[in-house]
Amino acid sequence: MKRDCPKCFSALRSEIIRKGIWKVEIDKCESCFGIFLDKGELMTLTGNRPLHHLTTKHLGIDSDSELLCPSCGSLMDDEHAEGVEIDVCLQCNGVWLDKNELDSLREIDSASMKVLSPEKLAELYDADQSVSSSGLFSWLFGR
Ligand SMILES: [Zn+2]
Ligand SMILES: [Zn+2]
Predict the structure, then answer these.
(1) Could you count the other beta carbons within 10 Å of the beta carbon of residue 39?
(2) Is residue 104 part of a domain?
(3) Residue 136 lies in a domain
(4) What number of other Cβ atoms are within 10 A of residue 93's Cβ?
(5) Which residues pair with 43 in a beta bridge?
């Protein structure tokens, strides 16, 4: 499927980023230089597991982003990772990063990253209640 930039609607072009032995194919906008990463690619590129969790299992159910996912067309959600605002697709967990945000994310120290702000916890608690027991809360606090 052809992917367009969710911000400026230019066509995205695939580009290979190398990270060690990994090759990650990302989609990049040549107008605004934003990039789209499929689920898991952010983990490969940053090696930051808390960040990966933020964009997968810690996703809320509310969408407060105005962007539509370039991959599946679903609503995206704003997530805050240590001051970096990223858009995550609620459906496919793809991630949209504006220009330079990947660099900012790579500089985050995963050991000190606080995924769960009080606001995030409240949102997750609501999600856990309405989605029924996915075991999320026992996962969060049972460690
Ligand atoms: Zn763009
Ligand atoms: Zn999507």
Answers:
(1) 16
(2) yes
(3) no
(4) 20
(5) none
What is this structure's pTM? Answer: 0.80
CA of 97 to the centre of ligand 2 (A): 14
Q: Which two tokens stand for residue 72?
A: 């599946």
Nearest ligand to the CA of 90 is: 2
Starting from the CA of residue 98, give the closest ligand.
1
| Structural domain boundaries, residue 41 | 12-114
Taking alpha carbons only, the member of 103, 98, 102 closest to residue 33 is: 98
Domain count, the chain: 1
**DSSP structure class, residue 10:** P
Q: Which ligand is nearest to the CA of 97?
A: 1
Identify the pLDDT of residue 143: 45
Amino acid letter, residue 91: Q
Domain assignment of residue 90, yes or no: yes
pLDDT at 25 over 90: yes
